[in-house]
Amino acid sequence: MNKSASKLLAGGLIAAAALASSPAFAGKTLDAIKARGQVICGVNVGLAGFSAADSQGNWTGLDVEICRAIAAAVFGDGNKVKWVPLTAQARFTALQSGEIDILSRNTTWTLTRDSSLGMFFAGVTYYDGQGFMVPTKGKVKSAKQLKGATVCVQSGTTTEKNLTDFSRAENLGLKPVVFEKVEAATGAYFSGRCQAYTTDASGLASVRNKEAKDPGEHVILPELISKEPLGPSVRRGDDEWFTIVKWVIFGLVEAEEYGLTKANVEKQKAESKDPVIMRIVGTSEDTGKLIGLDKDWMVNAIKATGNYGEIFDRNVGPNSQLKLPRGLNNQWNKGGIMYAPPVR
User: Fold this and answer.
1) Which H/E stretch holds residue 49?
2) CA of residue 131 relative to chain centroid, distance
3) 50 neighbors 62 (Cβ within 8 angstroms)
4) pLDDT tens figures, 90-131
5) pTM (global) more than 0.85
6) Number of C-beta neighbours around residue 71 at 10 A
7) Concatenated DSSP letters for 154-201?
8) In Å, what is the CA distance from 307 to each residue of 1, 75, 245, 263?
9) How far is CA 114 from CA 66, 109, 161, 165, in A?
10) How far apart are alpha carbons 130 and 226 in whole angstroms?
11) pLDDT tens track for 143-167
12) In the chain, where does DSSP find H-type helix?
């Protein structure tokens, strides 16, 4: 190697090292969030276990807690969130227009949405699938017994399209009864206007628990007719904000894998010598500066909500009102498919 080439190589290595150690550019979305003092999060108008407000206006649910974790990573305070309840029809416009910073509203990640609506999905927070609920008294045991049945469904959703595909594929001649608002669809089903109601299986459990006079009078059929990976999304055009949202989700998943909880994260920060835990809590590496956040970004997120498993159990798991099994949403080393890239 000649002298000039050697100098060029050395200069390149120095520049690369400087780039790797320098803080990330914050990005316009994060700048706006910090200026206003809160994250604006679009959520469901009311889906028990995922996003719902009580009579005092306190929001709870899996999707809600993802937003709280992100707010905690940014501000050190999971309460610095403004909630914007959105219908299925209004959710994408709200994100596109800048009304919200993040859409965390039981939304399925699909190619069309990811490529044509000006948005990026930041990860999967619940692996779901579409199912059917029917009255127990009808003694229907399988969705394939619903030939010619009327089915209540919400418009503007993947659910409506999946119902049509399933009916055609199985030659069932199902008759969709379409409603713009989910409350109208569920109300019609419970009043007997439809022989079945269809949505994501998690949604069926939520609706049955919340709206049925007697949940035991309704059964969720065993078939799942689609893949519904649900997760939050952000607007295209701000890679820095996209990176923050994505890595908070990954961090919550990896925190569970390594036993970091809301109760022990401060103790682990002070005492743990595990290299992975030390990276997550920021005692060996400052990963926060790479994404425009403080060194304690993941400690603050975990302190606000707990790890992914804690969020799941509290809101939708077997001990919650919904009593949903962990299933696919278990860790990859416990029979599920929750697997996060490493925080390092």
Assistant:
1) none
2) 19
3) yes
4) 999 999 999 999 999 999 999 999 999 999 999 999 999 999
5) yes
6) 27
7) ESSSHHHHHHHHHHHHTT---EEEEESSHHHHHHHHHTTSSSEEEEEH
8) 51, 18, 15, 10
9) 20, 7, 17, 21
10) 5
11) 999 999 999 999 988 999 999 999 9
12) 3-21, 28-36, 62-75, 91-96, 111-116, 158-169, 182-190, 201-211, 239-257, 265-271, 275-281, 297-305, 308-315
Q: 3-state DSSP call for residue 137?
A: helix
Q: In whole angstroms, how far apart are CA 100 and each of 51, 65, 84, 133, 256?
A: 16, 16, 7, 33, 28
CA distance 86 to 280: 33
How high is the mean pLDDT in each 10-residue block of the chain (344 residues)? 49 44 69 98 96 96 98 98 96 98 97 96 98 97 97 93 97 97 95 97 94 95 95 97 98 98 98 98 97 98 98 96 94 98 96
Instruction: Please check whether residue 268 is in contact with residue 31, taking contact to mean a CB–CB distance below 8 angstroms.
Output: no
Q: Give pLDDT, residue 27.
A: 87
Closest listed residue to residue 253, CA positions, set 124, 61, 128: 124
CA distances from residue 158 to 44, 110, 150, 165, 321 in whole angstroms, order as listed: 16, 9, 18, 11, 26
Give the pLDDT confidence score for residue 156 in this predicted structure: 85
Length of the chain in terms of residues written? 344
Residues 6+ apart with CB under 8 A from 32: 101
Predicted pLDDT of residue 22: 46
Q: Copy the structure tokens of residue 43.
A: 């959520």
Tokens representing residue 104 in the block: 């965390």
Q: Which residues pair with 12 in a beta bridge?
A: none
